[in-house]
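Collaborator request, handled under Task 6.
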Amino acid sequence: MPNQSTAESIRRPVRHLIVILGDQLDRHSPAFDGFDSERDIVWMAEVIEESIKVPVSLPRIAIFLACMRHFRDALRREKIHVDYREISLGESSLADALKSALQCHQPAKVVMVEPGEWSVRESLRAAVAQHSVLLDERADEHFLCSHREFADHAHGRKQLRMEFFYREMRRKHQVLLDGDGKPEGGDWNYDAENRGSFGKTGPVDVPAPVRFAPDSLTVQVIDEVRRLFPQHVGKLDRFDWPVTRDQALIALQDFIDHRLSHFGEYQDAMWTREPWLYHSRISAALNLKLLNPLEVIRAAELAYRSGRAPLAATEGFIRQILGWREYVRGVYWHLMPGYLERNTMRASEPLPSFFWTARTDMQCLSDSIGQTLDLGYAHHIQRLMVTGLFCLLLGVDPKEVHAWYLSVYVDAVEWVELPNTLGMSQYADGGVMASKPYIASGRYIDKMSNYCRQCRYKPAEATGKTACPFTTLYWDFLIRHEQDLSGNPRMVMQVRNLARLTEARRAEVIAAARDLRQSLRPQGNGSNLAP
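Structure tokens returned to the collaborator:
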């Protein structure tokens, strides 16, 4: 269908210009409340800035554009006027594109759901104000906790903790409660039952997730992305993500039917060249609003109540959505814009260049990063306890870590990615997201995966030619931050273990870590932020 981008194709006068962003692809969005197809226009735009402000990977660009264009076409099939600006038109930023649309259509009012990124919200507000048009900015009802509700939860608390927030959300939405309003099974959290590994045999007969072969529109997007961004990392030959609501619903049901029952037990396990395992593969569909979180939660709960999934697996999955997903959004909006500047651990190292190539002899990093670059995906433990852990132990500037995560993952939107990266992964917020730094030696990775069996480094060794860099940096991290961590009750045992090290042994570890950092720095004073 031809691109509608001129006033001639739109009926006048224009009452409302309905702004739909790339991560707001919900036909039941509040943006459509009161919509009048005779007088209102939907406006959508693909802009270069969103792909180059961080060097976005090809899979992430492709999934956004494919989902947006399918959503556009679905609206047009309803005879809705859509002014859609394709990326080839070359408009640099969303704000500039919106200014152009306002000049073109001269609407009486702009209607938009609050953007999910603080800087985007501010720039669009400014663009509308500059044009002296009324702005009707509506709350995002996709989420299950409003800004006001989170502020009320946070008020008066010395520390925020997801677990207490999660319990409130369970009660509010009546999720996994028994007839007396108590948690199903007697406990709120079954995390202790969800830490299994595959052992020596590895995963056996894991049902592969449903694939969605690209249709002609998605193929067109893939070809265009390859042409426009030849220097960006990532591959598109295996692109098979759900890009419509119908496909997203199929992906959800496929997970519920075939993998939820084992998700809990193996949610933290990793295995070479096994990217999906028992994970859902619906996070991108959720974050682009093709799925509603409550319908996902209800589908999982129904599987438990009908005997198709155990309680521990169901609770663990629901906690990721009703707990973590809602919590990180609350933290993001509660603490932005200053949250982005936090750096409690005073980390300043550049991101190693192998994060853009996967060329490293550390097997866990090579596999996790290679998978990430190729597919735009890694599951939460690969992100937290492989790539994230290495950056934390090495002392990488959290802004550089944030920029990398935002650029490479198909499900990355700043409201969810920033708190998970800066807070949960890098502990740069000083304990808002996590009650302690999530640090471990190479032995953790050895326990939860088969990576170390194929690696030249030994996870038990901290110094020497075969010392595992994770283990070297783990002990160095404890030494460097001993004073900071000694007051954290959850770090007492790890800090006490330093007493086992003689002064000579400490010096060896410090020297080994110093040499490792030096070997990973770019030549001169440059940064490895871009590939």
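The cover message to the collaborator said: "The longest strand covers residues 41-45. Strands lie at 16-19, 41-45, 82-85, 109-113, 134-138. Please let us know whether this matches your experimental observations."
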